[in-house]
Every structure is written in C-alpha cells, then in structure tokens.
C-alpha cells in the first residue's frame, strides 16, 4: 500500500505543479494587521480567520498576519486599508464612529442585541448588506467574523451597586450613544485606549472602566487593580468584529476565493461566540478566586437604562440617515423575531424585551 500511496501523492503533486506553471495569474499575497496588540486576547479572532483562510485558500491567497502596533498604530489601520497600503485589517467597527455614526451599531448596541441577535441579523435579516453599504463608502469590503456576547461591565476600586452610585463617577467608556446614556445617569465618559485602562484604574484617574468580556479583561490584568465589578455590561450588550478588505484587493480575487473568505468568516463567527463564552466562564471564575466583589444592577435600574437608551437611539438616528437605517433594520428584526422567540421560551435564542426604541419615530426621521 505504501508505494501506491506514494505514487498517487506524486501524481497529485505533478498535476498541481502543472496547473501552477500553466496559470498566468500568480498567487495573491496580502498583508493583514489588526487593531489589537498581542497582549489583548481579542487578536485570537483575527488570527483564527487569517489562519483558516490560509488553510482553505490553498495556492490562491496567502495572508501574512501582523499583530496590532507592529506595522502601524491601531488607529491608522482604517486609512491604510482604504488606500491599499495594506490589503486587510481586523477591527471593531465602533472605532470609526467619528467618520460615520453608523459604524457604532455595526460594532455594538447599548441594551439591545445579544450575541445571537447579531448572528441572526447579520446572516438572515439583512445585516451583512449594511456592513457592505457603510464600509463600501470607504473603498472596502467588510466580512464580519467575530461575535462576543455581553461585556463585563464596570471595574474599579470603589463599588457601584446601583445607578445612584454612578453620580459624579468618571468612567472609561467607548461609544457615543453609551456616553450619552451614562451622562443621563449622572456619570461622565472618559475616552481611553485599551492599553491605558490598567494604569488609569490603578492611579485613580478613573473611578471605573469597561473594556471587554471577562476572559479578555482577566488576561489584561484588571483583577490586580479593580476589586469591584458591576454587572451586567448594559453599555455593550454584544460586540461584532471583522476584517476590512481593500476593494481593489478583493476584486483581484477569483469568485471562488472570495467565497472561501466568506466561508472562513462564517466559520470564525460561530467559533468566536463559543470561544468567547468559554473564556468568559473561566475569566469570571478567576476574578472571583482573586477576591473580586460582583454587584449586579436591579431589574428596576436596568429598566431605567432601557428607557434612556431608547431615547438616545432615536436621537442618534435622527441625526444621521445611515445611522437611522442600521437601527431601523435592527429593531425591525427584533419585532419580526419576537413571536417565535416568545412561543419558544425557555429554549429561545434572543434578547427578550418588548421595550424597544420607537420604530415609528425613527421612520419619521428617515422620511421627514
């Protein structure tokens, strides 16, 4: 059997070599980086996709992946991908909300979607096309390939046991809408890069901070400087990550290779949700072992947050048409899914709430 197997292997190699020598188009080589440095575990999502593409694409495409900060600062990867200086970059869409508010809900929502909602919406309720529409304005194709569920919440040196404790607190928080909600709750938003949070908590520059899920937070060392943890992370009820691809680089690929990249993104998305939840489970246990005190907000406090959030979402939608279009799609999905979601309790897969932002008010802003 061994000689036969060797003969077959040699024949296959010969056919492959003949194909390569007769093909005019050379293998595509891409440079890819990300917003995440090696010491932040979110880079594992980017790396998983790049490695999967390299495995599946064969001789059609080779991606050379670099950790965030090794080629350029993380803040520069958007421009580099748009202009074609690099072919691809992993990101979190919310970082680009200064360019268009529509990037914010493509990244996360305040007290709205959970992780499965993003999975449903992206793959079956039109979300994927909206990513293309928003990123397409910047000469890019976008493949969402990562989802993490509810983020940790706020960590700091002083306890936050209720909304009343937010009064006067300086809290590191990402996102325009999130900041607007926090301000109405009596706190003030502080903007810091992820790598600056540890020292900011340690030195008392902020009273508390949010960053990511428990697994990511623990590996960032936050149990060393934050004795208290407020849950749930209403500010980011789920998050999406993906890869920005320069449009010219994308168009240079064959349709088959483009489809391979999409398949790799879908597979990575499913993997990321389970991976993140496992990391969150382990991270929570480690925080508790280190003596962290967890305080959970009451149902009444969460209801107050939802009311304020709904107003803030409508406000933001009325300020920007694309922002409105994205939220209109999201809320329409939740309304459409609600009947099946509710009759399948307790085995349903979605955020359960009937207190949603007003679709009618958003439509009024879209069609003044």
From TrEMBL:
The region annotated as signal peptide is: 1-26
Assigned keywords, A-Z: Signal
Write down the CDD domains for this protein, in alphabetical order. Answer: PBP2_TRAP_Dctp5_like
Top-rank lineage group of the source organism: Bacteria
Family matches, as NCBIfam families:
TRAP_S1
The entry's protein name is ABC transporter substrate-binding protein
Look up and give the organism this protein is from: Halomonas salina
Q: What is the lineage of its organism?
A: Bacteria, Pseudomonadati, Pseudomonadota, Gammaproteobacteria, Oceanospirillales
